[in-house]
Each structure stands twice: as structure tokens, then as C-alpha cells.
Design a protein that fits this description.
The structure holds two protein chains of two kinds. Chain A is α+β, with helices and mostly antiparallel strands. Chain A has helices at residues 3-15, 20-33, 75-88, 93-98, 103-106, 121-140; strands spanning 47-49, 54-62, 65-72. By secondary structure, chain B is of the alpha/beta class. Chain B folds into two domains: 7-43 and 312-420, Alpha-Beta Complex (Aspartate Aminotransferase, domain 1); 55-309, Type I PLP-dependent aspartate aminotransferase-like (Major domain) (Aspartate Aminotransferase, domain 2, 3-Layer(aba) Sandwich), CATH 3.40.640. Chain B is 40% helix and 17% strand. Chain B has helices spanning 7-12, 20-25, 52-65, 75-95, 109-124, 143-152, 172-175, 198-207, 227-230, 255-260, 295-311, 313-332, 359-368, 381-386, 403-420; strands spanning 33-34, 37-38, 40-41, 103-106, 130-134, 155-159, 180-186, 212-215, 234-238, 249-253, 271-275, 278-281, 337-340, 349-354, 371-372, 374-376, 392-396. A seven-stranded mixed β-sheet of chain B has the order 4-10-9-8-7-5-6, sandwiched between helices. Chain B has a four-stranded antiparallel β-sheet with strand order 13-14-17-16, covered by helices on one side. In chain B, α9 (227-230) links the parallel β8 (212-215) and β9 (234-238). Classes of the chains: A alpha+beta, B alpha/beta.
Chain lengths: 141, 421
């Protein structure tokens, strides 16, 4: 599935929810399904410190695809991370770098990505893209 | 003289009837809905909502009276200058200062503390001197002193608190030395709600000739303040936390200090005479009010204080004390809820965590249920370190909150537990 198709799939899923509690319950569910991150990878270097919740992000290449592993100490944040990883992990660096993450706005989570929300998610998207750029350059060496 | 009223003190005095529903109608924003639910506003330690009297006053100034104050020759300027100076007197009376020129308008508590740290520090703090603050200060009452101490090569000392969130005031006598130049302490903790015994702290400090700055950001709106009876050397607060407009603050200082301290900002209004060879400064309070002051904010703040006086600050304190006991009992009854700040003397600020649930998750869910709380470290990271946590959920109540809202918070927290449990 392309990044765009995955986003459309998530938008469809969220369209079933009538209120915020349903959305949050779903995010809590997703957080539980997120592949566990190796505790050794939860280093200072991989920590994206937001004001309130901590987010760790690690990336590695699998063939020509970039794979992300992440975690957070807050569950809702972790649920949103699970969505981001579902959309972006396992794609080529160039695709990730150029991805337009329209689903965030459409499922009503845009506020979570505003710089003032300071939960580390905007920083996480930026870091994901920075990884993509770095690996793309590496690949072109 | 007793400044802090316990419940029994208040019941002995005549307190006017307090009708919280009438008061709520004075605050237009309390009728708002968020996510189609009635707003339950419990973030009052961050900022308070504004009564219609304040909103109308600001509207009146911009609609009919606006003009730059002081030195104006024309009608509008003269009239508004009078109102600005009247606002200063209003603040003076509200905190019972001896002189109106001891009231300096600033743009907030942070500004007031920075001004004192710079100005007082410039004159009195030198190499190897000491400044004492407490472990439970807001960053605004930590960082300016750290910067001062760095600049002057002086030392910052910390008065600790116990695990219930009460300052170890008896340690103070041992901490003060001949090098101690100032003690800066909050009156009420923004994170814990602890009411510090500032009278005792001031007595101890003064017995060693150490002046005291009291950060009143969280006390001005909750209890009667009498700076002369308290005998503090400086008392600072923000207008927006006492139902006034934001961007305004007050720096009260005893005349003897303000006379001696150098201006921390320079420019127009604060001068007496300027030549290229030199400048002489204006008298108090203008020496400390360089540039065009936020006169709308100052007048709006004074209007808020008038509103509080009309309702009665003792009646407000009584109502909030009742809420404090009610909320304490209801929240403590929640299984797995850990309260931070359980001192005997506290106001209706509740900092807590629910076992195994991140404060951010709790806050996010409460938000969607229409309940506004704050989560995080509340700009008191050293305080959080004391408890070995990185943040809490904080519900902070004010004059317009009700028992029904506390019930809603209680039920919402049950829902949170159910969702994340």
C-alpha cells in the first residue's frame, strides 16, 4: 500500500467514530499493538523531548526501505505514533521525505501536531523526515 | 495580626451571603460550551476568567477614553491619566500599602521579579553574597536569581520542603548568614496549593536584617493581603490571575528600597531631565515605569480588584475553602489517586496522578469532556524532582467554581481510569 492509500484507510476507520472518546479508545488500542521498542534503543539520543510526554524514535534501513520503531510514556501519544509509523514505516526514504500527512487533519488530530501542543509529535514528524533525508543522501553516495 | 483566615476565623466574622450562581453570571465565558459540553474551567492557577465589569471597563477605555497618559495637555489624556493614577491607589488600598508610590505597574509577576532581581541585585548583591529561595518556587522565582548570582558571582541557597509540601521554615535561621542579601519565596505554591507561613519567614529573615520578596501570584486572588501587616519588603503579582486583563502586573516595594534602587529600564517618562551629558531620574513610582505603561491593563486590573472588594475577599476565601475540603474528600476517595501537596494549610489547588496513567493522557481525556485542567510540571521542575515525577494533573479552583463541577471532575476521572486501566 502507498503512503497515500494507508492514510485513506485510516481516515475511513476514523469516520466510524462518533465522538472523541471513541477516537481515544481506538488510539489506546493502537498503542497496545505498536511493536515494542527495544529498551536499549530508548537512549538520550533517540529521545524527542516534548514538554509533557516523552517520545523515543529509532530508524534503520531494511533493504531499500526505512523502518521506524518508536515509543512514548503517554498512551494517547503512543497511539498517534502508531498511526504515523503505520503510514510511514517501510517506505523508501524519498517517499517519506515527500509525504504529505493529510490524514492527521482529517481525523481531527491536527491540534496534536501544532507546535504549541508540545507533546513531541511535531518534533517526531520532523525527525522522521530528517531520518529520511539523511538516508536518502546516504543512498545516493 | 492574623492574615490567614481558617474556617473558624471566618465563621466568627460577618461574611455576606455568597451566591456562586449569581457570581457565575458575571463571567460571560463560563456560559461557553467546548466540544458541545458545558465548560468546566479548572485551570485558574494559570489564569482566571474576567468578569463583565472588567471587560466593560476595557471596552469603555478603547471606545471612549483612549489616549496616551501623562504629560498630555488635552482632555482625554488628562482624564485617563487621572484614572491610571486612581488605579494605582486602588491597588494600594487592596494590598494595604502605605503609599501609592510604592505601587509600580509592570507587565506581570515575571517582569516584577526580574525587575527586582536586576535592580536590587545591582545595588546590594556582590561577590560571595547569598540569595535564598525555596525548593517550591515557580521558574519565574528561580531563574532571575540564578542569573543574578551568575552575574555577581553570588550563591543561590535553597530552602527545602517536606513530603507533604510544607516548607521547612525552621531551617531558615540556620541558612541565613551575614552574606545573605535577600530571600524570595512564594506565598502560595502554584503546583501544590500550599499556603506558606510568610509571616514567620519574614520575622526570621528580618531578625537577621534580610529583606523578603513575596511572590503573590497565587495569593492575591484567594485571601486578604496586607503588605504592612505581613511586613514583606516586596510583593508581586499579575493582573490576569486576579480576574484582570493579561499583560499587567504589580511590583510593590517598601519606599526605602525603591528610593535606593536604580531604575532597571530607561527611556521616556522615568526621567526628570535629559541632556547628552547626563540624565536625572524622576521620582517614585515613575522612576520604574519607563515608556508608555499598559494603562488599559492597569485600569482593568483595578476594576477587577474593585469587583473582588464588592463580593468580599473573605467571602471568596470562605467559598474556596469549602470547595477545597469538598474536593479533597471526593478526590481522595478515588482509588489509585495520589495527591501531591497535602499540607495543613492549602488552597483549592489539586495536583495529582492516577496510578499508571500519564498526566498528559488524563488531561487529554478530561479536555474532551469539557474539563480544563493543566498537566505537566507547571513551571516548577525542581519541585517535581523532589517527588521524583515529571509532572502532575492540576485542577485549580476559583471563586466561581462549584461543587457540581468537582463532581464532574470526579466522574470524569473515573472514566479516565476505566479507559486506561
Amino acid at each position: 500500500m502507498t503512503i497515500e492509500e494507508k492514510q485513506k484507510e485510516i481516515i475511513d476507520e476514523f469516520s466510524l467514530f462518533e465522538d472523541w472518546m471513541d477516537k481515544y479508545n481506538y488510539l489506546i488500542e493502537l498503542s497496545r499493538d505498536l511493536p515494542e521498542m527495544d529498551p536499549n534503543k530508548k537512549t538520550e539520543e533517540n529521545l524527542i523531548e516534548g514538554c509533557q510526554s516523552k517520545v523515543w524514535l529509532d530508524a534503520h534501513m531494511d533493504g531499500n526501505k526505512l523502518v521506524f520503531l518508536a515509543d512514548s510514556d503517554a498512551i494517547i501519544t503512543k497511539g498517534i505514533i502508531a498511526l504515523l509509523i503505520r503510514v510511514l514505516s517501510g517506505h523508501k526514504p524519498e517517499e517519506i521525505k515527500n509525504a504529505d500527512l493529510f490524514f492527521i487533519d482529517q481525523i481531527g488530530l491536527k491540534e496534536n501536531l501544532s507546535p504549541t501542543r508540545s507533546n513531541g509529535l511535531l518534533a517526531m514528524v520532523n525527525k522522521i523526515k530528517a531520518y529520511a533525508m539523511a538516508y536518502e543522501l546516504k543512498g545516493n553516495d | 495580626m492574623l492574615l490567614l483566615h481558617t474556617k473558624s476565623d471566618i465563621s466568627m466574622t460577618q461574611v455576606p451571603a455568597y451566591d456562586v450562581n449569581t457570581i457565575r453570571r458575571d463571567f460571560p465565558i463560563l456560559q461557553e460550551q467546548v466540544y458541545d459540553k458545558p465548560l468546566v474551567y479548572l485551570d485558574n492557577a494559570a489564569t482566571t476568567q474576567k468578569p463583565k465589569a472588567v471587560i466593560d471597563r476595557i471596552n469603555e477605555i478603547y471606545s471612549r477614553k483612549n489616549s496616551n497618559i501623562h504629560r498630555g495637555v488635552h482632555y482625554l489624556s488628562t482624564r485617563l491619566t487621572d484614572e491610571y493614577e486612581q488605579a494605582r491607589k486602588e491597588v494600594q488600598h487592596f494590598i494595604h500599602a502605605r503609599h501609592s508610590h510604592e505601587i509600580i505597574f509592570t507587565n506581570g509577576t515575571t517582569h516584577s521579579i526580574n525587575a527586582i532581581a536586576w535592580s536590587f541585585g545591582e545595588k546590594y548583591v556582590h561577590q560571595n553574597d547569598e540569595v535564598i529561595i525555596s525548593e517550591m518556587e515557580h521558574h519565574a522565582n528561580i531563574v532571575p536569581w540564578q542569573v543574578l548570582c551568575e552575574r555577581k558571582n553570588a550563591r543561590l541557597k535553597i530552602l527545602p520542603f517536606d513530603d507533604r509540601g510544607a516548607l521547612l521554615v525552621d531551617e531558615l535561621g540556620k541558612m541565613i548568614t551575614s552574606k545573605t542579601k535577600l530571600l524570595a519565596v512564594n506565598h502560595i505554591s502554584n503546583s501544590l496549593g500550599t499556603i506558606n507561613d510568610v509571616e514567620k519567614i519574614i520575622r526570621i529573615a528580618h531578625s537577621h536584617d534580610v529583606p523578603v520578596l513575596v511572590d503573590g501570584a497565587q495569593s492575591i486572588q484567594h485571601q486578604k493581603i496586607d503588605v504592612q501587616a505581613m511586613d514583606c519588603d516586596f510583593y508581586v503579582f499579575s493582573g490576569h490571575k486576579v480576574y484582570g486583563p493579561n499583560g499587567t502586573g504589580v511590583l510593590y516595594g517598601k519606599e526605602k528600597w525603591l528610593e535606593e534602587m536604580p531604575p532597571y529600564q530607561t527611556g521616556g517618562e522615568m526621567i526628570q531631565k535629559v541632556t547628552f551629558e547626563g540624565t536625572s531620574y524622576n521620582e517614585l513610582p515613575f522612576k520604574f515605569e519607563a515608556g508608555t505603561p499598559n494603562y488599559v491593563g492597569a485600569i482593568g486590573t483595578a476594576e477587577a480588584l474593585k469587583y473582588l472588594t464588592r463580593i468580599g475577599i473573605d467571602a471568596i476565601a470562605n467559598h474556596e475553602d469549602e470547595l477545597m475540603h469538598y474536593a479533597s474528600d471526593r478526590l481522595k476517595a478515588l482509588d489509585g489517586l495520589n495527591m501531591y501537596g497535602t499540607s495543613d494549610r492549602k488552597i483549592s489547588v489539586f495536583s495529582f496522578l492516577i496510578d499508571g496513567i500519564h498526566h498528559y493522557d488524563t488531561g487529554m481525556v478530561l479536555d474532551k469532556m469539557g474539563i480544563a485542567v493543566r498537566t505537566g510540571h507547571h513551571c516548577t521542575e525542581p519541585l517535581m524532582s523532589h517527588f521524583k515525577i515529571d509532572g502532575t494533573v492540576r485542577a485549580s479552583l476559583a471563586m466561581y467554581n462549584t461543587k457540581d463541577e468537582i463532581d464532574q471532575l470526579h466522574d470524569a476521572l473515573l472514566k479516565v481510569k476505566q479507559m486506561f486501566g
